[in-house]
Input
Amino acid sequence: MIVIGLTGPIGHGKTTLAKALSDLEPLTVHFESSLIIAEVADAMHAAMQTPIDPYDLDQLNNWLKVLPAILLENLGIHCTFEQIALKRSDVQTHPVEYQKLIMHAENLRRNPELLRHHITHENKETYRPLLQWLGGHLVQHVNTGIWYNEIAKRIYETERKGTKLCIVGGLRYPIDAAILRKVNAVIIKVYRPGHLQNDMLDPTERERDNIRVDATFLSDGTIEDVNYCAKLLLEDIRTGKLKKTYRTRTR
Output
């Protein structure tokens, strides 16, 4: 089975490339760390009776008390509440790290209906602040490989079922790539020249540039260009002839 890990800034074409690759191989699965984080976030929402005050640290911590049990049940991860509790000194010293959590709590107060929906690939943009905060906070305070160790387990399971291509999207930390390399993944950076890079103050986005990649896919052409270049990329991976750069505009 071929395993491809995709990294790159938000909005630079990772999803488009993933779809192009999936269309080339019927027996494909696509994992996103955000959707595994979403499984944890859904369980957190289910435990919240009513929206809380975004600026009340005690209320925020009271909500987070359910996390150790959720992580154990969903991912088999052991941790204590003391590891993940918000500390006033940290919030005051590093406010940017907590703005995403506060933003999500504000959204819940404005629209409590968000608590009742499962997070999916289609609606995850609405929940992105929570997914970003939760993803980064648990990497820092529980286990650096918490999300990608789970993805690696799921990769082994899907390989046993006959999958030929596994695409893993959204790598943000060097440890993510290191874990995927243990399952022989090829790491591809997707980048759109001249396009803005969003959320660079967020810790999960800042670390991304430290990932060592095997090739860069410059997504600066049309959808047809991307589809054509994706075919070349997949064929080169299959034949062991991966190039350092793939540029969609040059076909």
Observations:
- The longest helix spans residues 223-239.
- Strands lie at 2-7, 28-32, 165-171, 186-191, 215-218, 245-247.
- Residues 35-141 form one domain.
